[in-house]
Amino acid sequence: DAGVIQSPRHEVTEMGQEVTLRCKPISGHNSLFWYRQTMMRGLELLIYFNNNVPIDDSGMPEDRFSAKMPNASFSTLKIQPSEPRDSAVYFCASSLVLAGVYQETQYFGPGTRLLVL
Amino acid sequence: RKEVEQDPGPFNVPEGATVAFNCTYSNSASQSFFWYRQDCRKEPKLLMSVYSSGNEDGRFTAQLNRASQYISLLIRDSKLSDSATYLCVVSPKTPLGSSASKIIFGSGTRLSIRP
Q1: What is the distance between the alpha carbons of residues B30 and B20, in angstroms, rounded to a whole number?
Q2: pLDDT digits (tens, 9 = 90+) for B5-47
Q3: Do A43 and B91 touch (CB under 8 A)?
Q4: Residue B91 with chain A: CB contacts under 8 Å
Q5: Got the DSSP string for B84-103?
Q6: Nearest Cα residue in chain A from B31
Q7: What is the pLDDT, as a whole number, of residue A87?
């Protein structure tokens, strides 16, 4: 079974450059989540989509961050311009959320390790 | 106050020992509870869901105390392979009819099992 796929797995870039992270959720899942993990702040939810629609983006740090989900099988997280403090591991996760069902399991991708110099 | 709080550890215990850690949550309307495990430089993976009646999966036992708003994880006969960070996860109640909910992760408890 193909799990959540993320690319690239590693990204090193210079401050000011645009960074695009990609995610392919598990087929059939209707919710997609972008997280950022650092030693200092732990795992932070940035944004999540349900049926390709952004539901809550209150975790997005600032206007430099944007996320899209043009279809059920693809999402991007873009940082423009990137800054050194954006260095972190970015995880994408997907789940199947059904109305009236409260318990759902999130399946995480392997993450993208981003280093902004 | 954080919505979900965990003791960061590290818990350093010998192989074969029993270890337990708790996680407290602030939202009394929380509905779903989970423990995830994260190995070093890997993604979090579901360890087990936590049910109101408590549940057991082999050497792992999870408990929920709604009155005191905490969940616990007990690991018996610990193995070296249990060394990881354990993340407590809480999901607020999903409004009826809504098809999405927001899951909140604790910052994790590091566990190290020594030979």
Answers
A1: 22
A2: 999 889 999 999 999 999 999 888 777 899 999 999 999 999 9
A3: no
A4: 102-104
A5: EEEEEEEEEPPPTT------
A6: A102
A7: 97
